Amino acid sequence: MTRLQNTLIKNPQAVMTGLHGPLARAGHVDIRIVDGRIAEMAEGLTAHPGERVIDARGSVVYPGWINTHHHLFQNLLKAVPAGMNQDLQGWLASVPYPRLNLFTPKLARIAARLGMAELLLSGVTTCADHHYLYHANGTTETGDLLFDMAEAFGMRFVLCRGGALESASAHPGFSKTALQPESLEQMVGDIERLKSLYHQDTPDAMRRVVVAPTTPTFSLPPTLLRELAHSARGLGLRLHTHLSETQNYVNFCREKYNCLPVEFVAEHEWLGPDVWFAHAVHMQPGEIRMLAQTGTGISHCPVSNARLGSGIAPVPQMYEAGVPISLGVDGVASNESGSMVAEAHAAWLIHRAEQGAAATTVEDVIHWGTAGGARVLGLDSVGTLQIGQAADLVIYSLDHPRFFGFHDTALAPVAAGEPISVRYSMVGGRMVVDDGVIPGLDLERMRAEAWDGVRQLIQVDD
Question: pTM value?
Answer without folding.
Answer: 0.96
